[in-house]
What we know:
This protein is of the alpha/beta class. The chain has one domain (about 45-160): Oxidized Rhodanese, domain 1 (3-Layer(aba) Sandwich). The strands form three sheets. A five-stranded parallel β-sheet has the order 1-7-5-2-4. A two-stranded antiparallel ribbon has the order 3-9. Helix 1 (about 5-10) packs antiparallel against helix 2 and helix 2 (about 30-40) packs across helix 6 (about 130-140). The chain starts with a helix and ends in a 5-residue tail after the last strand. It contains six helices and nine strands, in the order H-H-E-H-E-H-E-E-H-E-E-H-E-E-E.
Amino acid sequence: xxxxxxxAALIMPFSISHAxxxxxxxxxxTQFSQIVATSLAERESHRLTEAQFIAAMxxxxxxxxxxxxxxxxxxxxxLGAVNLPFTDFTASTxxxxxxxxxxxxxxxCNNNFTxxxxxFASKSPAASLNLSTYTSLKAYGYTNIFELGPLLxxxxxxxxxxxxxxx
Length: 167
């Protein structure tokens, strides 16, 4: 795939077939498209291997953010993670959990783990929560976001878990 064509498609504003667009100052598709385009350029270098993710978890001041639902988080989550469901992202809820816009943030989602479909129910690859979380954090001005890259089996990974489903 040619990245230049992908970027052009993302940046081009959505064309509406009616004569007049429907105004809503709280929804900005053009800005969203620009964030996705800039994320495309940097995201791959911000995806971490299992070993890199574990090492980053121990760094001072890092926030390990789990944006899944509270019920799935309660069942199984990475030890030390804070839970802020994606649907609850606002400037103030994010500021409550993340000390500054430059804080190193580690993210992971359902699509990073197999072996526990109840806690980590897989999403469609294009709907992966990592993608939404990454771009939303960027939209709120966070600049130091890293995500767990691989698909790992919960029974074989070295990443430690906590929660009600841990025996």
